[in-house]
Amino acid sequence: MTLAQPFWLLLLLLIPLLIRRHYLAGGQQRRLVLFMSDRSILRAGATWRVRVRNGLPGMRWMALGLMALALARPQRQWQEQKIEAEAVDIVLALDISPSMLSRDFEPDRLQVAKRVASAFVQKRPYDRLGLVAFSAEAFTQCPLTTDRRVVQQFLNTLEVGRLEDGTAIGMGLATALNRLKDSPSKSRVVILLTDGENNAGYISPLKAAELAQTLGIRVYTVGIGTNGIVMSPARRNADGSYDFAPRAMEFNTDLLGEIAALTGAQFYRAWSEEELEGIYAEIDQLEKTKMEIAIIRQTTDYFHWFLAAAVVFLLTEALLRWTVLRSVTI
């Protein structure tokens, strides 16, 4: 146990002075003389009220001492802890084109991708994470932050239909790179997830991949979805909803493999939710970078206990003085 501000203990020196002043003042008070014919009534001694009244000044002195201790901030210091954390700057680039509503995943590809990505974010407490969404265009949904809850909230709000229909992989990747290019982190990563081939945007995916290579940013690419006949959006209604119809779905993943290889990362194919979870788990293990050791000194303050006790003494003294021990001066 230590004191954070021990100089407040000097207030304790006031207590002896107050005690001395109290007794000196008591000795100088005028004495009331009563003439009595029989002293037998005094043999019973002082009543409990007299004894308690004599103790009232002591309660005030005790409260003052407790307040001085509270101001001195008694605290317990725990042992220093050395933490070796692992941190990476990661941007999740997520496809939100209409095909992500295809129902070969339950309930659809987008909801599964959001759910698995949120679980991945939860496992990275020391990383800075960001979120980019793209279809025919791309935008930053969440800049790099260490607040996992914020990233997860932005993930939950992603919806199809916010951008023009299409799949602009190059635009999505370039936007993610723009969030990472000025990052001081030694390890910078983009996890790009899509279910279609590039068919929009004015930035070529390979040009964006070459830029990532120049910047030293690894791009893990994930192709999600099954091949074959899938219930998928066929037409967009005026209210923003979609009509679904069976459609033949497959896409050439060679481009995603080239992007990953060019940046020194890996390409993954997710045919099911379980495989997607395994992919994120593997990336989680691959992307570990040691941070410098941080030293933390933990302390626990106890001043509030002393302050609470002082308040109890003061309230008790006031309650007794103005109720059962109240005296009338004539």
Secondary-structure element order, as H and E?
EHHEEEHEEHHEHEEEHEHEEH
Whole-number total of structural domains: 2
Fourth-level CATH superfamily of the largest domain: von Willebrand factor, type A domain
Quote the CATH topology of the largest domain: Rossmann fold
The N- and C-terminal alpha carbons lie at a distance of 51 Å
CATH architecture of the largest domain: 3-Layer(aba) Sandwich
What does the model show?
The protein has 330 residues and is of the alpha/beta class. It folds into 2 domains: 11-20 and 46-78 and 298-330, no CATH class; 89-286, 3-Layer(aba) Sandwich (Rossmann fold). The protein contains 9 helices and 13 strands. The strands form 4 sheets. It has a 6-stranded mixed sheet, sandwiched between helices. The protein has a 3-stranded antiparallel sheet with strand order 1-2-13. Helix 1 (14-28) runs antiparallel to helix 2 and helix 6 packs parallel to helix 7.
Give the key terms.
330 residues, three-stranded antiparallel sheet, six-stranded mixed sheet, alpha/beta, Rossmann fold
Question: What's the quick description here?
Answer:
The chain has 330 residues and is an alpha/beta fold. It has two domains: 11-20 and 46-78 and 298-330, no CATH class; 89-286, Rossmann fold, CATH 3.40.50.
